[in-house]
Amino acid sequence: MNYNWNWSVLFEEQYLNWLISGFGWTVSVALSAWCIAIVIGALVGVGKTVPNGVIRGICATYVEIFRNVPLLVQMFIWYFAVPELLPADWGRWMKRDMPNPEFVTAVVALGLYTASRIAEQVRAGIETVPPGLTAAATAHGLNVSQTYRYVLLPISFRMIVPPLTSEFLTVFKNSSLALTIGLLELTAQSQQIAEYTFQGFEAFTAATVIYVCIALIATIIMQVLEKYTRIPGYVGKEG
Amino acid sequence: MFIKNMLLTAAVTLGLSTPAAFADGHGGTLDKIAASGEIVIGHRESSVPFAYLDENQQPVGYSIDLCMKIVEAVAAELDQELTVKYVPVNPKTRIALMANGTIDLECGSTTNNLTRQQQVEYMPVTFVTGTKILTRKDSGINSVADLDGKAVALAQGTTNERAVMAAVEAAGMDVKVLPVRDHAEGMLSLETDRVDAYATDHILLYGLISKSKNPDDFAVVGEFLSFDPYALMVRRDDSAFELVGKKALAAVFRSGEIDAIYSKWFDPLGVPADPLLKAAFKLGALPE
């Protein structure tokens, strides 16, 4: 391998600023998308378990569509196709006047995609609650919404914290796909540095290290959350 | 403890080992090709007419044809049958894939510049172009000065991106830049009216117009904003392989075969070879 290594380019002011800015966009996209994903994912996940068949059908359809189309394709559809399908004025607004169109599109696409995955985890969490508890709640005279509010959701949400951790990490990693619609997040910025300096391996190493650090911090946050929400004797380690 | 181990492992795998991409023989690339029986060609997917995918998703084009001449020469040099393996590249990946030994020869629309020569090497010049602006005929844009307040798409990692940015900064204009990945996406952004202009090498702009749905709506405008001599890219510090390529291209230039290859790809676009390019062909026709 005849490659001229030069690690110092990463610390030149211009390129360091690019990395910092890319880090900022990556975190912004991931956290914004996560907020959308948690809200919609929780609603859809609950919707898949309710007695009402129509709601169940709608929610199941949502999950199948958003979970089965590759995220990259979804990004392109939101960015290139949706503005063309809308009335001309709206489409033009989306393409020209919407503030930060690349950012908004990336957040919406990533948020709705991740929501479908969270919905499945919420559903699985609710279904693992022993049916005896639901029966007991009904025997106590709780109606359906009360059963969800006081019995099913408090237990299931605590149980799915561990799988949600990996989803939380995935949202950071998937945010890198936003570069395909022109958002200069961390991966895109490291590519830019590679193009300007031709020191690609250093630039991507820097990006890799930053991603690993983000992942470690995210894991620690989720572990703390897990500790505080644990139900003694249910899941996870005692401690 | 676990995290400490993990970080150690990461450090070891990342920086402290270099992949053994190929054996460091005297003939570098030639040895590698001889050993594997295949030559790996990196090609662009939407650089019309240099290297792009045809209806059957096969790479074709002016650069691909010239590369095939080199492949024949390499096969003759090694005196063995070679299989050609195609690897798609884009402006962002081409240098890295060449430097790390993934591809042996890059056939596309790559500008030979000295900064890039820190990592890669080039064959003789096979085309001469420069940055211009593609816009809708009704946009009112006639030169780079008219971009003020407009949106322009630029392909990340191209010399054109920098040429346009430099012109914009020099004039102190306010231009919204949309970074795109390749020419197809730049054209899509222009066609869907997301941007007012797309800038790349002028010859590629004519190619994009010829492939668009409404060729009459678009025009290439303005002065050249940069000088971009194209060349096929090879690995650095590998003069043996380079020489085989140079010989093959010199033969094509010398025999006049280049004119037929040129016509085949550029006549449909209505772009005759300009005097500078003809001179480049003459200069490349080195005697045996």
TrEMBL record, chain A:
PROSITE patterns: ABC_TM1. The chain crosses the membrane at residues 20-44, 203-225. Keywords: Cell membrane, Membrane, Transmembrane, Transmembrane helix, Transport. Residues 23-222 form the ABC transmembrane type-1 domain. SUPFAM superfamilies: MetI-like (SSF161098). Its main location: membrane. The keyword Chaperone does not apply. It comes from the Bacteria. It is a multi-pass membrane protein. It holds the Pfam family BPD_transp_1. It is found in: Cell inner membrane; Cell membrane. Belongs to the binding-protein-dependent transport system permease family. HisMQ subfamily. NCBIfam families: HEQRo_perm_3TM (TIGR01726). PANTHER family: GLUTAMATE_ASPARTATE IMPORT PERMEASE PROTEIN GLTJ, MEMBRANE COMPONENT OF AMINO ACID ABC TRANSPORTER. This is Glutamate/aspartate import permease protein GltJ. The gene is gltJ.
UniProtKB/TrEMBL annotation, chain B:
It comes from the Bacteria. SMART domains: PBPb. Residues 38-269 form the Solute-binding protein family 3/N-terminal domain. Keywords: Signal, Transport. Pfam families: SBP_bac_3. Residues 1-23 form the signal peptide. CDD domains: PBP2_GltI_DEBP. InterPro entries: Bact_solute-bind_prot3, Solute-binding_3/MltF_N. Belongs to the bacterial solute-binding protein 3 family. This is Glutamate/aspartate import solute-binding protein. It comes from Roseobacter fucihabitans. The lineage of its organism: Bacteria, Pseudomonadati, Pseudomonadota, Alphaproteobacteria, Rhodobacterales.
